[in-house]
UniProtKB/TrEMBL annotation:
This is Amino acid ABC transporter ATP-binding protein. InterPro entries: AAA+_ATPase, ABC_ATPase_HisP-typ, ABC_transporter-like_ATP-bd, ABC_transporter-like_CS, MetN_ABC_transporter-like, P-loop_NTPase. Gene3D superfamilies: P-loop containing nucleotide triphosphate hydrolases. It comes from Duganella callida. It is a peripheral membrane protein. Residues 2-235 form the ABC transporter domain.
Length: 244
């Protein structure tokens, strides 16, 4: 379980997370919605320890992220996919995927490569194992990024606006892969502006507004007129997004 209790994060005088409480259980797919600047991406970065909380705690399967001795154990439980791919440009797709399993998990290289080939095949990139990032489309690079995260066999997959830098066709490619992972039972915490996709694959929807958790509801309830939509701020956000 990912357990977030009273999470507070400030950048100078700006409070980005303001007392957030959240639990993500194994097997859940939870979408995080909210306007730009509401704290969504910061929350993901705090879960994987890239940002340090000013108050509150985060633990991943009991490993405290704020404890340097437990941080690496927490990170091994989760994999993160960022919006800008972050692939190593001098490495092939195969090398990008096998690097961490070999260096961190000490998986034998041959085994790591076999598993990487299987991952690439599962996302339709079996023929692109030896391609460098510059030789791949944006959608293909993002799919490699997902494979790289999955290669560490994480219990939780953290996805931070993974389609925001993609055109509609590439977005559809990546969302299809994520829908497949969700159907297979992969636990995901998904920061997105893809409202219909969130509606289709999520067990729950979380809404952040100015750093505060405004709603944490089952998906059907979130989109119901007497549920999340009954809150003016959520209704305003969804109306604006639907028109954009």
């Amino acid at each position: 379980m990912i357990l977030i209790e009273g999470a507070v994060k400030r950048f100078g005088a700006n409070t980005v997370l303001d007392g957030v409480d959240l639990r993500i259980a194994p097997g859940e797919v939870v979408s995080i919605l909210g306007a730009s600047g509401s704290g969504k991406s910061t929350l993901i970065r705090c879960i994987n320890g890239l940002e340090k909380l000013d108050a509150g705690t985060i633990s991943v399967d009991g490993h405290r992220v704020d404890d340097p001795k437990q941080l690496q154990l927490a990170r091994r439980c989760s994999g993160t996919v960022f919006q800008l791919f972050n692939l190593y440009p001098h490495m092939t797709a195969l090398q990008n995927i096998t690097l961490a399993p070999v260096e961190v998990l000490k998986v034998p290289r041959r085994q790591a490569e076999e598993e990487a080939h299987a991952l690439l095949a599962s996302v339709g990139l079996a023929a692109r194992a030896d391609a460098y990032p510059a030789q791949l489309s944006g959608g293909q690079r993002q799919r490699v990024g997902i494979c790289r995260a999955l290669a560490m066999k994480p219990r939780y997959l953290l996805l931070d606006e993974v389609t925001s830098a993609l055109d509609p066709e590439m977005t559809a490619e990546v969302l299809a892969i994520l829908a497949k992972l969700a159907a297979e039972g992969t636990t995901m915490l998904f920061v997105t502006h893809e409202i219909e996709f969130a509606r289709q694959i999520s067990n729950r929807v979380v809404f952040l507004d100015q750093g505060r958790l405004l709603a944490d509801l089952p998906t059907a309830r979130f989109f119901a007129a007497d549920g999340g939509l009954a809150q003016p701020r959520i209704a305003q956000f969804l109306t604006k997004i639907s028109k954009s």
